Amino acid sequence: MGRAVTVATCALNQWALDFEGNLERIFRSIDIAKSKGARYRLGPELEICGYGCSDHYYESDTLLHSFQVLEKLLESPATQDIICDVGMPVLHRNVRYNCRVIFLNKKILLIRPKISLANGGNYRELRWFTPWSKARHVEEYFLPRIIQEVTGQESVPFGDAVLATKDTCLGAEICEELWAPNSPHIEMGLDGVEIFTNSSGSHHVLRKAHARVDLVNSATAKNGGIYILANQKGCDGDRLYYDGCAMISMNGETVAQGSQFSLDDVEVLVATLDLEDVRSYRAEISSRNLAASKVNPYPRVKVNFALSCPDDVAVPTCMPIQWRHHSPEEEISLGPACWLWDYLRRSKQAGFLLPLSGGIDSSATACIVYSMCHQVCLAVKNGNAEVLADARRIVNDETYIPEDPREFCKRVFTTCYMASENSSQDTCNRAKLLAEQIGSYHINLNIDGAVKAVVGIFSVVTGRSPRFSVYGGSSRESLALQNVQARIRMVLAYLFAQLTLWARGMPGGLLVLGSANVDESLRGYLTKYDCSSADINPIGGISKTDLKNFIQYCIENFQLTALRSIMSAPPTAELEPLVDGQVAQTDETDMGMTYAELSVYGKLRKIAKAGPYSMFCKLINMWKEICTPREVASKVKHFFRMYSVNRHKMTTLTPSYHAENYSPDDNRFDLRPFLYNTSWSWQFRCIDKQVNAL
């Protein structure tokens, strides 16, 4: 009868401008899909060139090389007898579009341009592409000569159309179109499209995966149908981690789920589904059928091909499954770990170096590296040849097999405790014990000699010797002395990263890891060009609250008992003199606010789009049980003063893993001035007026 269709989707770890590697991964996904009987294969958004090309999209080279890759795909026997749906940029009548190119047996069936472009947060698609605004309209696209020679076609359909095969009808969406209020799948479904496809370039944000899954399932819950989603996976060259989650859904229920985090470069999901289930589901939705009778039809591209076999009565079909979501602590353990692995292997470095202070932030960073080592050993155990080859190259041993995470950690991870006269023995012991438990190569050093030398130069030149506040110095002197210590640590971190392996008789250099969390970055509670300045920072988009929960997760799941004392100790920078051998300086006292408060300020400022006055108005209700309006006003003013005074530090913030929607990353996500009028006179006057009225 021809009712059981077999379709494939995938999550690919593509890399911007790595045309050779991207092509190889696309071919692998097609081979796997065909070997499992699929007749249609969907890939991620812009998979040929990689999603994160940014301003390289302006270059004609990017277009040229994308077509050269397409040529290789079209002429290969591997792509025969399966509809292949790939993503690439296309220039049509001198306008650049983000497109799907759908082909079968050396013939391009349709080029479908993206209709709704992603342009918020980290996305800037309107900078490089133009949305296709001609609904249900198709034009003639004249193919480049290199493609004409393979396909024998001079031109192909370009625009908003659907594919009509012998047995069903398919319609494409691209990423953002699923999230739009007027998603194309609504009208397409009413017009008889039974299979919807979505190629995504969707990145990880903590607690976001369920939203994507819910959208996919709801797309077919009201209208019936099969929904296939592909996504990119991994770090393709910047701060984002694309988190896979390829999936197939039918009639509002998930039937196939891909992994959110994994070190597999190619993951393919295949499902066999009964088209009659879609038709019977739709038959009893009278409101849908009434709307369908009035819909404007889509142009249909006829395809002489079937996704099913004539005699398929006995073919087993897939049943619904329950989607398993990761907890936020699992997401922190896995997402940044996979991002670090991609960065390490693709940068061709020999490992990481982390200044380990014995506090929560640097300890959480160390745990993420340890989690990465766990993931590498697990992938090798499961037969991942690419991970094994990368691990051998990184440790410079062609016979090496990573089996024990602690042993692998010893080879690729160096931790360094940089003591000063202001450091306590407690933090030194905590750092040493954690390093022993995760297996890192640990260094203890003292920076006092370097600090005294630098301050000595100042004293020789000026004839003045700055002092800490506890010794009678001004706040300016005390802050300058703290900053010298912090900056010396950054200089030493890079020195040891470059030469530690040399001193040990080993090749290569190390990437320096930063460990400033999203909250203290927002507040500016860090020294510019201190140890927050590094090559990359896996926790720069994660809140202190989430990091504490992650530390507890590591105690329970990795049996890292050293973390218990780290959890119970008050966060401190240890840059001011000790009092009776004990730490007198704490982060929250220094900042004039708690980390919990900072997290609230961050979400209101960025996610709720609140300026000083709006934030005050929201907080007098949120905190009415614990603060008077005057106290709320004081807290809000203090936050905005500190935020604006320190905003310049965000311009040099270390590239960080993006995990929170209130990240202050100045590069592309949170675009703000860095020279403010820090008095906020008008805004604060509005707050004062409201306080007096209350």
From TrEMBL:
E.C. numbers: 6.3.5.1
An example Gene Ontology CC term for this record: cytosol
Nucleotide-binding keyword on record: yes
Alphabetic keyword roster: ATP-binding, Ligase, NAD, Nucleotide-binding
Positions of the CN hydrolase domain: 5-275
The protein, known as: Glutamine-dependent NAD(+) synthetase
Assembly mode: Homohexamer.
One record GO biological process: 'de novo' NAD+ biosynthetic process from L-tryptophan
Pathway(s) it belongs to: Cofactor biosynthesis; NAD(+) biosynthesis; NAD(+) from deamido-NAD(+) (L-Gln route): step 1/1
Domain of life: Eukaryota
Homology family: In the C-terminal section; belongs to the NAD synthetase family.
InterPro entries: C-N_Hydrolase (IPR003010), C-N_Hydrolase_sf (IPR036526), Gln-dep_NAD_synthase (IPR014445), NAD/GMP_synthase (IPR022310), NAD_synthase (IPR003694), Rossmann-like_a/b/a_fold (IPR014729)
GO-annotated molecular function: ATP binding; glutaminase activity; NAD+ synthase (glutamine-hydrolyzing) activity
